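Subject: Re: docking follow-up (flavin-adenine dinucleotide)

Dear J.,

Thanks for your patience while I sorted out the input files. As discussed at Tuesday's group meeting, I've set up the holo structure prediction with flavin-adenine dinucleotide included as the bound ligand rather than trying to dock it afterwards. The sequence and the ligand SMILES I used are pasted below, so you can double-check that they match what you have on your end before we go further.
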Amino acid sequence: MKTAIVIGGGIIGLSSAYYLSRAGWQVTVIDKGNRRNNCSTGNAGYICPSHFVPLATPGIVSQGLKWMLNSRSPFYVQPRLSWPLIQWGIQFMRSATAQHVQASARPLRDIALFSMACYEDLKKEPGFDFFYAHDGMLEAVQTAENVHHAKETAAIARDLGLDAEWLDKDGVKAIEPDVEMNILGATWFRCDAHCNPEQLVQNLEEYLLKNGAELQADSEVTGFTKQNGVITQVQTDKGTHNADLVVLATGSWSREMAAKLDLSLPLVAGRGYSFLANASDFPLRRPVILTEGRVAVSPFEEQIRFGGTMEITAINTPPRYKRVEGIVQSAREFFPQLKLEQPKAEDIWYGYRPCSADGLPYIGRLQKTPNVIVATGHSMLGLSLGAGTGKLVAELAEEEKVSVDLGMFSPERFG
Ligand SMILES: Cc1cc2nc3c(=O)[nH]c(=O)nc-3n(C[C@H](O)[C@H](O)[C@H](O)COP(=O)(O)OP(=O)(O)OC[C@H]3O[C@@H](n4cnc5c(N)ncnc54)[C@H](O)[C@@H]3O)c2cc1C
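The structure tokens for the complex came back this morning:
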């Protein structure tokens, strides 16, 4: 039996392991943590073809500079003398062009729709009972300038074949009658779905354990043995594993892991925070993005999650809870009747989004080390693109024709 070592037990690693296991590989997932202290559980759970605009846009650079002076703002780059950060910043600014945004729209749409179809199939599999709802998502706006922008985005979405419609305030009220919103309107992306990420990763782990995969926790991959141009062994701080195939799915730690394979993978960690509130106090029927506050709100069955902020920072710097005050403040401004208290520090989750230098994921087989498949750098879209990425990894492993054109996602695009 062919053996695959998947490094990283977040949504990308677990999805890859799931589809590899189904394709007949003997899979071992190795994680340096407990597969919960990563980015894949406390996120908003959006599965969102609506997000066809990559993080690297012309607007984000100027907006980011304005926001940087405010400790409660949704975007922050911690200034530090770090060569990888400087390199990433240069490549990010080079990528943040209108042409890049336009060229990325179809590839992002295609992989998101593919991934959504994978989730819908997964949902029908025995043993998968995670919360999943295809009720769309509202992108709500408060300013006239953003109304204009939202209408334009809705039109582009429709040109891309996505089901999206601008609703004025009364239109929003008609579909969300139980919640008062201080907004001018919202784009209703009926094309979107959302799920409970904790339940999803748990179902994936249960499937893998039942079907003969090995899940190793607290085991850090430290290096590789290469012979005749391919990786033959993966070394960890606990021992060595033989491998026919290696999948690199190490999220925000991928730059360092790639360097061990002589691969330059510009990537930084974008920390975000979330917390849960009681859904009965807050009867929202579908997810809402609070555009001006950059806050994502997700109703799960009994709970509702508020999440946001993008803090480009070194991993393991102490969390800055002031950012969470910004999330609470935005939520109060958008939902005037909402009684939302600042959560206690111990009730706040945070995770590090793996942010590539152009806002597109890195997915593909390495030309210079052909038994390594890279699947990382999904930034704000790792959950949305998770199942689809996993299936693409298995297609690459099986040397099948891939279901999505991976040209723009090549992990070797930065050299
Ligand atoms: C507030 C917030 C809200 C978000 N909302 C959404 C959303 O609604 N929809 C969406 O699509 N995305 C969302 N995201 C982004 C999404 O959560 C991430 O893109 C995704 O979780 C990344 O998954 P991953 O598997 O690549 O990384 P991770 O989940 O971080 O997993 C990487 C794993 O690799 C392991 N690892 C690293 N190095 C090593 C090593 N040397 N040896 C062994 N193991 C190693 C780590 O321990 C970790 O478990 C959100 C993020 C945040 C912060």
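A couple of observations from a first look. The mean pLDDT is 94. Residues 98-124 form the longest helix (27 residues).

Let me know if you'd like me to rerun anything.

Best regards,
T.
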